[in-house]
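forwarding from the other thread:

> can someone predict this with iron/sulfur cluster?

sure thing
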Amino acid sequence: MLGDEVPPFFEALGKVFKKYGFRDSRSRNRLKYLIDAVGIDEIIKAVEIEGGRRYQKKGVTQTPVQGGDKTGKVQLKNGTFALHMVVPSGIFSGTAMIQTAEVSKEFGSGELRLTVEQNLYVVGIPEENIGKALSQPVFQQYKNKHSVFFSDLIACAGTEHCPFGVIPNKPDAIQMADYLTKKFPHLEGKVRMYWSACQKGCGIHGLGDIGFVGVKFRKDGKPVTGVDIHFGGTVTKESEEGKLLIKNVPLEEAKFLVEELITEYSKLKKDKETFEEFYSRILTRISKEAVKFLMKFNYLMKKKKIPVRVEINETVLGRFSEEEEIFGFGFQIYRKLTGKAPYSRSNILEIYDEPKPESLKKLKPDIPAKLSEIVMKMIEKSPEKRFKVFTEIEQHIKEI
Ligand code: SF4
């Protein structure tokens, strides 16, 4: 779309929303709910009628740019530098803003730029001034280089500033980033964690590598606040919305589940691979149900102090069904707990002529009987007795 076509397009879009949007419902009075209800094709048709012209379909991005902030120092076209300033959850005081502006005036061009990821750049710093600028007190409080969990963190207003908020949000996002920073202090790459305190999604959780949405639900009969966890949103090249991974996670548990996913990222990632690249290289080759199982199972084993965890490896990658992934995980658990493989091959299609494995409980008497029962059913030789989908296991796992 050419520059002068943009304002009339938005005018037409605004009129369509005014006419058809759910303006009588405070909670659904958003364009996104209208798009959800009628589909994007209907919206485009209506905008074209309203604007009295047709629009071209979008083209293909030819110059993909890495999504998220560029961290540290970034060289600008005129040879000076922009210094990144990480503002956790975007919480910044007026005093800090004045101090930052003064740093820019004294050592740079006097400009500041705000980023989508709720951070800042102090712009126009000549190379010889970088050290002096970074030694200023405001850069001690808001770091130029922070962990991957803080550098690209977004969190919407939350309960303190928005009547729709279900969770505090900004403090929750900081707490999670802090926990993960302590667990993975040297992790390189990029992990965009985006938090929305309610379903309206101002924290663009759907585009996060890992996204969180504040929700209320009942657990053991009591009302609880927590999050739905999403993953796999992309912003590089074409943006795509991620998928809902786990629903209704109490806030205090969310960090432990995410830790399990980050453990896989840190083990399997290439050098400085971003989470987004890792997602498309590895996580698209395994079902989201399998990822959810990995996170929940590993967290439970840690809680129960049972020394075993499943991982993403050749036993589960690139399988055609959940049944095969379940078998792969069962194979791993059996091997890790007993020191020997249940079958000589880890492929479900190649075990028909192998003997039935010995009971896990017999080989490892100190593990809970229920865990042994579940694992034996995951790797059961006879297809009729084997678990077929992860939801079948979920209920049993609660009984370990
Ligand atoms: S997503 Fe956040 S800012 Fe948006 S309406 Fe909900 S609580 Fe408010």
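DSSP finds 15 helices and nine strands in the chain. thats all i got for now
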